[in-house]
Amino acid sequence: xxxxxxxxxxxxxxxxxxxxxxxxxxxxxxxxxxxxxxxxxxxxxxxxxxxxxxxxxxxxxxxxxxxxxxxxxxxxxxxxxxxxxxxxxxxxxxxxxxxxxxxxxxxxxxxxxxxxxxxxxxxxxxxxxxxxxxxxxxxxxxxxxxxxxxxxxxxxxxxxxxxxxxxxxxxxxxxxxxxxxxxxxxxxxxxxxxxxxxxxxxxxxxxxxxxxxxxxxxxxxxxxxxxxxxxxxxxxxxxxxxxxxxxxxxxxxxxxxxxxxxxxxxxxxxxxxxxxxxxxxxxxxxxxxxxxxxxxxxxxxxxxxxxxxxx
Length: 311
Prior knowledge:
Layout: H1 8-30, H2 38-72, H3 81-104, H4 106-112, H5 143-147, H6 152-167, H7 179-184, H8 188-194, H9 212-217, H10 242-258, H11 264-272, H12 286-296
Helix pairs in contact: 1-6, 3-4, 3-6, 4-10
């Protein structure tokens, strides 16, 4: 059976443009709620366009992969509204794990890092998307959904809805949402934490739509009033060149692979270990950075983001 779902991200484009204009106007007139830098915003927009182009060029790989799985699965759950709803929730759980892998496996981080490369946090940051996601092979995490009987077209549809939801949480113009909403859903406050380079906020709040996944799997860190989020990378790349933004970590992996004295086992680890791993033990892992921060600020020990399980 052929299913036709709308391309919701294309339909949402006018909303994205309007929302960015409204956020810019709010910041300009209210003198609060974030900051725009022209070059940074243009880089984000260019990255968004490049992501669309890369999807057109290599998106067929994921499509053929899912259709091949669909051809062999004996299950077909149909397309009732409740099936779509279940697919949306399960795909969001899939997103949580892909996103978590994207911060803990350097090969996947090389594709995702560009989304964190801006030192500003506004709605254009949401458009700073990867050009190389297909090459991480994370599409395999979606394979169980197809084999369970969710049609690939439905999976792409709910994935688009997920992406649209995440757009609005990339803002400083919204402080906190109602407590019940903050408890269940991903919000600007939760996602600001995720974009922080502060040691407290590293590797936290991976959720796409439902923050409950982070609460369930021990990766939730609330935004602290007394510690503003410092946006960007642990080591910022200091460029607005879209090509460098898109490929700088891939280049860094290649340089690590080709440095003198590394073994094939080291090369493997440079791909699958978390960012910051070094074969000589001189790297700066998330856990190490947290320990260093607590050593400098002992009062932080045991507070959110510095629990022993994270260090």
